[in-house]
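Usage

Read records sequentially. Each one opens with the input sequence:
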Amino acid sequence: MTVTPVMNTTSNKVILVDDNETRRLSLQDSLSFLKVPHEALTFVDFLQGKQSNHHFSVALIGECSLPLSLNKLIQFIHDNYQDTPVCLLESWNEREKLTQSSKKQLLRILTDKLDDGILTDILHEAQIYQTVRGRLSNRRNYQFPLLIGESAALDELKLCMSKVVDREVNVLITGESGTGKELVARSLHNLSARAKQPFVPVNCGAIPPELLESELFGHEKGAFTGAVSSRAGRFELADNGTLFLDEIGDMPLPMQVKILRVLQDRSFERVGGTKTIKVDVRIVAATHRNLEEMVAANDFREDLFYRLNVYPIEVPPLRERKSDISLLLQHFAERASEQGLGRLKFHLSAIDSLERHSWDGNVRELLNLIERLAIMYPDGVVGVTELPKKCRHVSEPDPSRYQVQSDMNLEGDHDFISVLADTQLTTNIAMLELPDQGFDLKAYIEKVETSLIKQALLKSNQVVARAATILSIRRTTLVEKMRKYGIQRT
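and closes with the structure output:
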């Protein structure tokens, strides 16, 4: 994902420290010509802290008349100006003695005369340096607790979001279905100045076209059949807050015209009304569609697209942040437990298998899977075999532990099917004749049961579950009979 740096005027300010007065004045003229805010100081004034602020994009360091080592100078800049990179206007002694942190902060050493082209290039390099080095502080300032994960792709997303949290501009969130675009919108709202005001979501694709206008703008009593009273729309409900227009790509063209007017004028009329209503809302839109292609096909208004796409944010699919899957599993398992579905645990092999899955449905597919597994195995441990077949991308590491389960499945086991189909027992029973003097039926039945159970155990290699299947009884029933007759597996 490409992140466009957003730099404010303060961070573009340059500090020039040079005891060479001629060069200092010349560079001041160049900076003024390029309209770059700057401060120019001697080393004495600089070390005494006589600059007006401590926020600079780059420090241009020239000739020093004081007995100061380069390492101590860069350390001083680091301690007082944090991520400000250093550009040396001339060679300094003791460069080979610089610490690793000082070397990282040293942007470049000029060997040519500083002209406007080189100066512009330095400013651009410093801007990139600040952007890269500023990622950690941005993540510290904006935690975005709704977004679970620590992958590089998610870090890029958070960095992109952090630059627009406090800016009153329209945002367009793009990404595949199920990636969590609404969570991104809620996160932007929760950390903005509007956080205490309403966050109002609208799924533009889920509302019938004939009802969408009333849903967004409200209606007056009697505006149409069924309008028995006046009703405020989503724009009014979101006043002073954030309106989230989800699946904006599914909005009909006639409604796009009306939305465009609200974005331009921040005003509208209810359906059936004549009073103009003013609103102050921040618009955050989202779609899984390619709006640029829709614009080219005349399926989406170009002017509305550019109104919405002031600041684009692309949410990465789950397959690009697979290192986050283990954290998501833990988070969703805890949520399932809080919902009373039971707390799941995952075998390492199962996590490995899930990390190899393509996740076409993204985070929503993963959440759906966790809820299903929590219902099937409440408070249980999920291994590879417990996963759906489409999610099994590694072999079961210990298939022997599933011996009993596999023994219950006789499908394709021709030896045992032939035993079940054997008619010999039926034939022998039909040939029995009751003696004239009678006999002990209970003892005879016990003798027959004992003999058949032993034969079944022998044919099943002493596996009780298979023996029970051969005898067409429950495993628990067979265990009780074995206990009753004192039968032990050999």
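Summary fields computed downstream for this record:
- The longest strand covers residues 282-287.
- The chain has four domains: 14-133, 152-219+232-314, 319-397, 409-485.
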